[in-house]
């Protein structure tokens, strides 16, 4: 199980690495640090809509990465 968990962690890091730095920061704040959209928006100095756009764009990019890597 430890190997599977380690492989999963590596894959998650690869997924995040395929994102632009600001998009990666949004994902990290929302999904790893569990901040809400309002907090992310305020702390990063970007509109809420930009947060949602970065999440949408990031999901598409990660999906394409996953498909291209056979996952």
Brief synopsis:
With 71 residues, the protein is mostly helical. It contains four helices and no strands.
Describe this structure in words.
- The protein is 80% helix and 0% strand.
- The chain is built from four helices and no strands.
- The protein has helices at residues 2-17, 21-32, 37-44, 48-68.
- Helix 2 (21-32) packs across helix 4 and helix 3 packs across helix 4.
- The longest helix is centred in the C-terminal third of the chain and has 21 residues, at 48-68.
- It is globular, with a radius of gyration of 13 Å.
- The relative contact order is 0.14.
- The model has no long low-confidence stretch (mean pLDDT 91).
- What is the end-to-end distance? 19 Å
Write the element-wise H/E pattern from the N-terminal end onward.
HHHH
Largest sheet entry: none
* Amount of beta strand: under 5%
Over all CA atoms, what is the radius of gyration? 13 Å
The parts where pLDDT drops under 50 for at least 5 residues are: none
Content-based structural category: mainly alpha
Count of helix runs: 4
Mean pLDDT over all positions: 91
Estimate percent helicity: over 70%
